[in-house]
Design brief:
503 residues; mainly alpha; 25 helices; 0% strand; globular
Amino acid sequence: MVIICMVAASAGLLFGYDIGVSGGVSTMEPFLEKFFPNLMRKMASHGNDNTYCMYDSQVLTLFTSSLYLAALVSSLFAGRFNVSRGRKATLVLGGAIFLSGALVISSAINVTMLIFGRVLLGIGIGFSNQAAPVYLSEMAPPKWRGAFATAFNFFMDIGIVTANVTNFFAAQLKVDWNWRLALGLAGVPAFFMTFGALFIPDTALSLVQRGRVKEARETLSQIRGVDSDVDAELMEIFNYNQEVKSKSGNHYNKIFQKKYRPHLVLSVGVMTFQQLTGVGLAAFYAPILFKSVGFGSNSALFGAVLLGVINLGSVMASCSIVDRVGRRVLFVVGGTTMFICQMVLAWLIAIKEGSSGDEPLTKASALAIMFVMCLFAAGFGFSWGPLSFLISSEVLPTEVRPVGNGIGISFNFMITFVLAQTFVSMLCNLKYVLFLFYAGWMVIMTTFVLLFLPETKGIALEAMHPIWEKHWYWRRFVERKTMEREREDEAEFKACVHNRISC
């Protein structure tokens, strides 16, 4: 069971490595000289006149943001593929496309080829990110679903740390192909995930949805063990699927019905808010940010490594306690921590860099900024980082889970694309006020969680309905399931299993 879930969770490695590698590569001189010589000339001529605007280039930001635009579009198509072909096939296809993108981008000879490779990477991430969180949530026992589902984010942070370390050592090589090495190594985790996904079973829920009940029982026996009550869990899954089958209509039409409004709003809300935390400051733009506020090249790359390690440690802590303390507590504590950090960063940078951005940082100021950024990374790592994917995959009902998850991920990628494309321009124009912008969003999203997110720890995916019926606001949208309907589903399940009729 653990190995099976590790293969699916390793999809996070692809996303994480790409998040970490793009910002670091963007600070490597051989990379900039080959693809962005005008930017290099601009930096050489202006020196430290305004550190806020050092990397203000729309073409350079397109190198990072094009991936998220491609992932946004592909995740919508991946939702349909996930329903019709299953979670396993979606993982395999996503990994294969990502691997091809890694080959293209590492051999790029011009900006067009560079962007095309990023688009392929984005398509692969769109498919794998659609399937992996859903796969983990559906495979995990309800008691430990939080820990299993947050494994996706744990692997993503391993990818970020690995990329940052790779960037740091690649930069020390002092050769003109160091950026190729950093970008090309993205293909290593893609190869192992794609190969491993060929040998894992699909989820019982997906198999039942496609009428393969016998295979679903075999999968449950394999992952739960011979001593578990497999038939009881399978019956619960079957009952839920029968309810889904009784409601005709297109999945994309269903998700917008009134009764699914709570699930869609929460899924889209948490996936959108995740990026509005300002995590881009501590992820793919960390090296650029550090260098922009006065760190040297090596110090900027080392700072990014440190942030990644701290984020990874906090994700591990989140995995160990999320099923005990619940989701809401971690969201609130993490949100409060990040709000304080954003306010302190704005103050520190304002008094040291000011509006002109031409004052060099003292060693004490640089260390203070890095310390606060580390606290921010820790706050994100045990809250909005792993929990956003968890919430999106567990609050959506089975019949609309892949589609709803695809929409949520698409919004996540859309916000990521917009922020990635505009970050350096916002830093150039807003300066330290940019941190206050993100602090304001932290207030909004923490309030959103307190008002609208019900606690879901320890509740089976097929037994989520009562929490909506009891919620102070969402209860006005959901339907009440009757006992008569449950008895009909149970009778049909027994006929299917014992008489082996078509299901």
